[in-house]
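Re: How this chain folds, sequence and tokenised backbone to follow
Notation: Tokens come from a learned vocabulary of local backbone shapes, not from coordinates.
Start of record: The labelled sequence and token lines come straight after this line.
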Amino acid sequence: MKRIYYLLLIPLLLSAWQLPAQLQVSFDPSTTTLAVGEEKVFNLVVNDNFDDLVGFEFTMTFNQSQLEFVEAYPLVDTTSYSTFKGLGVAYVPPGNPSFGTGIKVTYYDFFLTGKSLPDGTNFIAVKLRGKAPGTSQMNVTCNLAQNYTCEVINAAFNDIGITGTPANITVTGSFGGITATIGDVQGGMGQTVCVPVTVDNFQDVSLMEFGIGWDPSILTFESLQNCNSTLQLDCSLPLPNGNFGFFNANTLQVSWINPFSGDDLPNGSVLFEVCFTIIGNTGQTSPVNFFANPNPSLPPKIEFRNSNDDLIQVNTVNGSVTVNDDNGAGVTIDIGERNVCQGDTFCVPITATDFNNIVGAQLYIAGNPLKIDLVGVKGCNPKLDLPNCSLGNLTFNESSDILGFLFEANPLDPLGVTLDSGEVMFQLCYQNLMLEGQMDTIRIVDKDPLMSEINDTSGVVNLIRQIGVINTVPCNCDLNVSATIVTKVNCPGGADG
């Protein structure tokens, strides 16, 4: 947004006429009550003066101690540049050094033609969950000293500003149930995808048991990863020694108990990830569902208990794996593979193929933070003209152990950016936390509610995701030296000679 603002600053300074009225927005509902654990959608409504706008940036805020962010998404068409393609709606969590906490909204018109909306238009939806009793407000916050930037630029290059009418929200009561959610992911035939299982309101839990089933004609089970360390879940198979086993060939059985006390997890915590190889055809979808034995006296049951051995109410949300055409034409983003030593710091290249006339990209890149720790970024390609080549900014922003990468081509260049086949976009650097013989994958994921996406001058293009594999190999580097011949080379990449 700063780049756009600077481009517009010169004509803005030359403008001598009176600025038009501010953009007016409000929230619907304007007053509401919800219980702890209950979710509610609030619409940001255009009230007045959304006329010929070419760019804007603002943040919606709420009381983080009483309300919890669930999701936010546009309610207007974002499929083309004639509408609101490129409209960004993203949650900024507490602790971000560059931006204030809240739901950040950004947009600029590539062609500077100006966009208008009629009064009363529902523009953006925000879903919040009651967290603790009390009364608070949600509103647009403008305070540059606290990193809350508000800019609303019209086609006359004037910053007209924005004013919001707050929503008054009262949180009451209590809710003792757990919500367990299986994620929705996509991938192409032959690819390996990992589906997260997450929980909300996981408090004083001492036992959990459930099954997870899938369609074996579309998915083949591969492995478990990212098992929750707080619960000391063991990804080993099978039961009874670990926490996981098979009820049948296409149903995973999960069992965990803490016989001494109950455990708490933050909302959105990942219990584990189930990884599959996709064997289905493009367009097919396999449900990935919670499963309970039809015979209630036999495992697996869908059951959670607290430290008093009382049953806890549970709400299950099923997921899916959809087979897309990632093996077809499109832009391929490839994450490099490495053999590394225990404790090494290493970097992997992120390369692109068929990266032609690209005007924008957002990628979310994840590994297992218990196995590899992201420590830096380097080697950014100058063709991308990125404003930053380091962590902790809008270009490279790490949140919940997922790295977000944002690229926007210069809007004055109608052809976008083209890279040579296999050209490096940037490198990600990690600290290896694994023991010898262990491995991890670095992969492009979707971060609900945002999707990894690449756009060329015609719109969204197919994104082909290639996983990077990191292996921890022996590194004792024993050598036998005889005259000028070196043998018994055990170092990665070494050879006798």
